[in-house]
Description:
- The complex is a heterodimer of chains A (326) and B (295).
- Chain A has helices spanning 18-24, 26-36, 53-58, 70-82, 93-99, 101-109, 138-142, 156-165, 212-228, 245-255, 270-280, 302-308, 313-325; strands at residues 41-45, 63-65, 86-92, 116-120, 149-151, 173-176, 198-200, 205-209, 232-236, 239-241, 257-265, 286-292.
- Chain A is of the alpha/beta class and 326 residues long.
- Chain A binds chain B through residues 42, 61-62, 64, 66-67, 69, 71-72, 75-85, 102-103, 106-107, 110-112, and chain B through 69, 115-117, 123-125, 127-128, 131-132, 134-143, 145-146, 165, 168-169, 171-172, 175-176.
Amino acid sequence: xxxxxxxxxxxxxxxxxxxxxxxxxxxxxxxxxxxxxxxxxxxxxxxxxxxxxxxxxxxxxxxxxxxxxxxxxxxxxxxxxxxxxxxxxxxxxxxxxxxxxxxxxxxxxxxxxxxxxxxxxxxxxxxxxxxxxxxxxxxxxxxxxxxxxxxxxxxxxxxxxxxxxxxxxxxxxxxxxxxxxxxxxxxxxxxxxxxxxxxxxxxxxxxxxxxxxxxxxxxxxxxxxxxxxxxxxxxxxxxxxxxxxxxxxxxxxxxxxxxxxxxxxxxxxxxxxxxxxxxxxxxxxxxxxxxxxxxxxxxxxxxxxxxxxxxxxxxxxxxxxxxxxx
Amino acid sequence: xxxxxxxxxxxxxxxxxxxxxxxxxxxxxxxxxxxxxxxxxxxxxxxxxxxxxxxxxxxxxxxxxxxxxxxxxxxxxxxxxxxxxxxxxxxxxxxxxxxxxxxxxxxxxxxxxxxxxxxxxxxxxxxxxxxxxxxxxxxxxxxxxxxxxxxxxxxxxxxxxxxxxxxxxxxxxxxxxxxxxxxxxxxxxxxxxxxxxxxxxxxxxxxxxxxxxxxxxxxxxxxxxxxxxxxxxxxxxxxxxxxxxxxxxxxxxxxxxxxxxxxxxxxxxxxxxxxxxxxxxxxxxxxxxxxxxxx
Lengths: 326, 295
């Protein structure tokens, strides 16, 4: 067991104050920035107004509280979008995506409407609150919707990058926010639609990750290089739909070994994206996943859960070495 | 139709004309269903007078510019009755009547349920019951945010009100004082498998909407004069602070005697050639009688 101080829940719900808003809540900061340049932008929450303190202060008439009613929120947003507005719904991912999947599909996606869902507290971020509060199947669901763009920012700078980049999307966008992640980018990166930034270059194996997995992947790559002489090709799977098919084909063909890392179940996430792509292109490659197993999950503080399920730098290193050694 | 021609609210139309229009909708519906091979007769017939009165009297429309920002919105919550709407939109000039010949075919914009991406004049897609009152709430909110005085009408079934999302929307609409939103409940008393309140009791509907902060009018949904008075007397869209629920008591299958006696059997089906002839004869005779009374 490590230090208890590192193992406590972190409050990521609130803006805290405006000075720290960018650091603590980049999605709230980003939507305020986008709204300043686009009168069509509105924000909505189902009882999550405390994540939008900055926006509400700057644009009090453009925030719509819908109460604890996520399904209604998505359909109301679709109605607003059909009248020319661009609503950003801020929601906890388990309720924002899973509970409203049919409203999202039928009202937002099928009608190609510019509704945005900012899913806070994705993956295991709500830890000991219990499995009802996990969103670990969300990507599998969201990426099957034909017209929905799905992005998973790796860190605070990537949140800004991907929210800015998707602001003008004509159709719906799901922005999956990982909380309390390690920095990956020193500055706001420029990530073209559907591309995966290559963060490390190497020929021994590929590590492809998204969201909180990216920080693990780059740190693991550095450990692999310095301590084990293994060179990893590391990609940030920032766009899960559309995803970077060319990058997967290129790297998988070169390294022949691909490890994926994500706080999502082994079903339907980036692991599946890579497997489907490799198979479709008839590339012979060994695949492995650092992801959550397809079983009942344990409950606990996120840091302990990540360790339990091997979603740590050491866990990624170990899995990478297994893959390289065959 | 030229883009700038607006069909204003309260357009003159006699009660007889609108009653005949409702029967015309019924005749058009049975033809379209015959073309497709299967369809929702009795639910379409229960709201024929409502649809006729809205489209030929109450709604502010611009058929030559279907997305005109100031048009009144009409959402078909009970999307399975779109068959009755297609001939109306064609007749008003939203699209060429020749499109009706494509109804139900692969690639056609006109199907059993309405799709806003395909058919001009459809303000929102539907088919999944319970969504459209929420969507209408969003549109009414948009009206208030943009300072436009359009109204948003949502026609729901009574069985549809069993969906919990409807009441989330009802709560939000009164919370935001959306006097520009009107829910019309086609309360025909039946859902797909039988009497609505045997499946799940939804009465007393009026009191339920009132408890959610709506003003309620309970009317005979087949009485044209009452429908006209009700729509003419709606509160001012720009300033009123309470959404309106019109509980239209109707009879499923209304207008065809054997369907009204067995509404459940005609929720979804196909008339035999003999039944088709009987239905045409019954409706045509009534329309001719109405025409005679006008002369």
